[in-house]
Amino acid sequence: MDRRPTALFTLLVGLLLPVSLFAQARHHPSARPRISLSNYRAINQRWHNAAAVPAGRFTSDGRFVLRLSSLNGMGSVELTPEHQDGGFDDAARAEVARVLGDRHTGTHAPIDRRLIDVVFQIARHFEVGQVNVVSGFRAESRGSNHALGRAVDLVLPGVSDEEVATFARSIGFLGVGVYPVSGFVHVDVRTHSYFWVDRSSPGRTSRRRSRRRRGGGMQEVHGTIAQQSDARARALGVTPLGGTDAPAPPDSPEADDESDEQQPASPQVTPSGG
Fold this sequence. Notes:
This protein is α+β, with helices and mostly antiparallel strands. It has a domain at 56-246. 32% of the residues lie in helices and 14% in strands. The protein is built from 7 helices and 8 strands; from the N terminus they run H-H-E-E-H-H-E-E-H-E-E-E-H-E-H. It has helices at 4-27, 37-47, 90-99, 113-126, 161-168, 206-214, 223-235, and strands at 66-70, 76-79, 131-135, 151-155, 174-179, 184-189, 194-198, 218-220. Strands 2-1-3-4-6-5-7-8 form an 8-stranded mixed β-sheet. A hairpin with a 4-residue loop joins strand 5 (174-179) and strand 6 (184-189). It starts with a helix and ends in a 39-residue tail after the last helix.
């Protein structure tokens, strides 16, 4: 019996299997290495440590200086707004895109102007010297505001996540999600506010957490406050979005954007002040 076809088949399987596994790992973030929950909590405490970051500062004419620092090795930047209430030019927007870049793909995308102003507004309210960015643009998060440059997961050192979320909920036209176990707040710009709490563990994929949501893993909160915040913002003439060209995906309602939240499975542990 000729064994050559069998040997050739075995060789091909040996060559193609590693390629297949690599492709699966790229398309399924949950396959990436994870750290233990206890180690993650220790790292998260460092993210929240106000003593590890510079003090908040203002310019001589009263403009608050916004400092963003990526926890995923994408660098940091200090930005001075054009006005006391915000406003950043194209050069500043490009720097924000760099810091909010996708560390897995090494790519970045334009960040919505209003999102930058909202982050500035939150940082100025608490007068924090630095905003720690857990996640910004994510190329693989299809159907999510992260993929449109409209969302950021953040930590304000020295300020509890619930305090950050409470203030953000008052702004209007925002998605605000609190992740008590993972220890950060999600903020995105959208046309109708939606607020939620997700107690999933770090590294949970959206698919798993969608199943958990039916069992109470994720829940909407403060629906009335969301409507009231939008009404106030509308009366003030606030524009929900600020310059992203791509529309929200038609098959992914804005109110479901939180279902695509991919929490960090293996965060970087570089000093937050870097």
